């Protein structure tokens, strides 16, 4: 089982181990999410080995201290993830995950630590981390307001989970910790890595023009694009078939342009 490998590297779980894969894909989930919806994605990509980043304080790391700033994440990922990046790779981030993966990519390039292996960033459901997010931060919401917001942005198929008090009580401290990271503004550093951005058309505030501002954070402007899906904030789950189709197209396009 892939989960047994966490004894070796607790920061990520290889969804379906594939030692012969040509590329590695690391998925950084959204705030408060264990990222369960991503676990079967690799079955559609035989040349890629998908791994799910597991943040402290959730999944099999429930007893660990929640991290509340980017510096802490970079320090820990530098030890817990970078040694295992051994092939050309792609980072996928959803919501707060896009902030974390962009910050990590910048750190890898600035410290000359395997940054050359990153071939693509796919950023989903959030504007660039150098600009203030238009959505109100969970840091400034009451618990009741947070639950209302979660129901509003949820995949309709799973919305009822937020009516279960024990689950909500467990989730809210995680969301508030993650929201502190979302409140940080990162430098406007352009990376020499292609960036593709996905968004949900039913989001209230994170609209396509705002998502287009990610273009300022890549030097590969000819490869930049924004794709919109007919879903809410959790469109990667809600519109999974369409997202996977577009990922295949974007992987093929970018990899063919960047791997010699």
TrEMBL record:
SUPFAM superfamilies: alpha/beta-Hydrolases. GO terms for biological process: lipid biosynthetic process. Its EC number is 3.1.2.14. It is an enzyme of class 3 (hydrolase). It holds the Pfam family Thioesterase. One of its GO terms (molecular function) is fatty acyl-[ACP] hydrolase activity. Residues 24-247 form the Thioesterase domain. It comes from the Eukaryota. InterPro entries: AB_hydrolase_fold, TEII, Thioesterase. Belongs to the thioesterase family. This is oleoyl-[acyl-carrier-protein] hydrolase.
């Amino acid at each position: 089982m892939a989960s047994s490998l966490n004894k070796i590297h607790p920061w990520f779980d290889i969804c379906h181990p594939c030692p012969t894969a040509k590329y590695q894909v690391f998925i950084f989930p959204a705030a408060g999410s264990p990222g369960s919806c991503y676990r079967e994605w690799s079955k559609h990509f035989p040349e890629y080995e998908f791994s799910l980043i597991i943040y402290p304080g959730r999944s099999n790391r429930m007893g660990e201290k929640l991290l509340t700033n980017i510096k802490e994440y970079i320090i820990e990922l530098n030890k817990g993830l970078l040694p295992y990046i051994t092939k050309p790779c792609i980072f996928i981030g959803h919501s707060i995950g896009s902030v974390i993966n962009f910050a990590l990519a910048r750190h890898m390039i600035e410290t000359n630590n395997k940054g050359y292996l990153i071939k693509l960033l796919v950023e989903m459901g959030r504007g660039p981390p150098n600009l203030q997010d238009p959505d109100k931060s969970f840091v400034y919401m009451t618990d009741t307001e947070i639950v209302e917001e979660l129901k509003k942005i949820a995949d309709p198929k799973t919305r009822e989970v937020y009516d279960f008090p024990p689950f909500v009580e467990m989730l809210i401290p995680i969301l508030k910790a993650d929201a502190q990271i979302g409140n940080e503004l990162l430098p406007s550093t352009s990376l020499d890595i292609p960036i593709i951005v996905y968004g949900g058309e039913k989001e209230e505030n994170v609209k396509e023009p705002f998502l287009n501002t990610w273009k300022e954070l890549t030097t590969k402007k000819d490869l930049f694009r924004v794709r919109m899906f007919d879903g809410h904030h959790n469109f990667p789950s809600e519109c999974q078939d369409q997202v996977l189709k577009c990922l295949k197209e974007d992987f093929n396009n970018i990899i063919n342009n960047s791997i010699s």
